[in-house]
Amino acid sequence: MPRVGGVSQSTGPEGTKTPPSCGRVGMWWPDPVPPAMSRRVVRQSKFRHVFGQPVKADQMYEDIRVSKVTCDSSFCAVNPKFVAIIVESGGGGAFIVLPLAKTGRVDKNHPLVTGHTAPVLDIDWCPHNDNVIASASEDTTVMVWQIPDYVPVRNITEPVVTLEGHSKRVSIISWHPTARNVLLSAGCDNLVILWNVGTGEMLLALDDMHTDLIYNVGWNRNGSLLVTTCKDKKVRVIDPRKQQIIAEKTKPHDGTRPIRAIFVADGKIFTTGFSRMSERQLGLWDLNNFEEPIALQEMDTSNGVLLPFYDADSSIVYLCGKGDSSIRYFEITDEAPYVHYLNTYSSKEPQRGMGFMPKRGLDVSKCEIARFFKLHERKCEPIVMTVPRKSDLFQDDLYPDTPGPEPALEADEWLSGKDAEPILISLRDGYVPIKNRELKVVKKNILDSKPPPGPRRSHSTCDSDFSQPALEEVLEEIRALKETVQAQEKRICDLENKLCQFTNGTD
Question: Which of 169, 251, 399, 411 is the most buried (most CB within 10 A)?
């Protein structure tokens, strides 16, 4: 009888081993697991050890009165230059814009961006101009603002353009990912409008597609499709230029609470919602088979709506719930179960909102793959997500080429049916923000597109021949005067800024 590790073991018929005798009845050792079966005990992923860490106290933004408006918006927007936060404001709506480097306690008299006559509900930075931000408000308008690189000495009250077309409050805005100056807005009038900010014109109005309140709207990677969620418990995939619904799913989650949906890699759709028992769920769906989910997972029981933030470069989805004190993150792959839990960042304080930095604003020297700006009641706390690496060299596998600030299309090209992938940039040497580029709004002359009302007179041809050059001359003079006024306004602001610095220096 051969012995294995000091324990007797008998050999059965045809050389098969029988359980060893250990002196106790019913106890035996199984054979070792074959190497082929034990090779992959843990799923291989370079993001398995991603961890979150808050910055030090002196790198937070203190003494900010974050808005208390009841809305499922994130209340915060970030880009490589600025952080913008919707704040409490008397007599209308406002948000504050701070340079990223201006950390610490914020002066109570710091200038705000004001102009809305009711609370601001959503803000979004233009992906193609780091100095342009759009805001949506309860006053039914959308405003687009030019933010100077210097800190102004008084409130910014004049938007570059005001977009009016909604009949009820506007709670969602989102810039097109690849086309210049194309902005989407959605309101409580169940209407989605696409604007050309460069001309102040309405491009498209999707008014017959939603029967109830719209919860959220998201673009796919090249901006050819939209995904929307609605109070009627439907997720819709819409081709905005054809103005038609190309896919629709009723009740992706059985609960009555709001649903969120975003596009992820390969055109799949990621959703968050609630089960019939009010458990929070996440789901992954394929447009080619929208009836059954690729993955559907239950998470916990909580009332907060989960806001998904997706990083296309790493295929990681971060879930932040309003009122939660944690950020969960998952990796989406082509292997079952397709949505893989990575880790949870936990803290003590609940979050009022959350901002998500674009990839080009991260510190690649520290292997930072995401940065969140968590809103508390009176402060904003940056949270850094890092992949631990020993080497100080640039990590190519963590930082593939990422969308840069240059648009791939003009608004007219996109509207005519063209699609283009984002223009990518390398982060190998770090990203340096581009200097302030002015957003110019050129409103078309309505006289060029509309015929004059009423019957034409017999001498109208003579009048038009005479008046057309004069009209163009007047318009050119008006444009020149506007440029002069804008130049003088900038000069006055520069002088006021210098005077403020001089006064602070003498104090």
Answer: 411
Q: Of 257, 250, 317, which is closest to residue 290 (Cα–Cα)? A: 250
The Cα 97–Cα 145 span in angstroms is: 11
- pTM tops 0.85, yes or no: no
306, 260 contact by CB (below 8 A): yes
Structure-token pair, residue 48: 């398995």
Q: What is the pLDDT of residues 476-498, one digit of tens each?
A: 888 888 888 888 888 888 888 78
- Exposure string over 470-502, b if 16+ CB within 10 A, otherwise e: eeeeeeeeeeeeeeeeeeeeeeeeeeeeeeeee
pLDDT digits (tens, 9 = 90+) for 255-287: 999 999 999 989 999 999 999 998 999 999 999
Q: How far apart are the two ends of the chain, measured CA to CA in Å?
A: 96
Long-range contacts of 233-238 (CB under 8 A, 24+ apart): 233/259, 235/259, 235/261, 235/269, 235/271, 235/285, 236/209, 236/210, 237/269, 237/287, 238/192, 238/206, 238/209
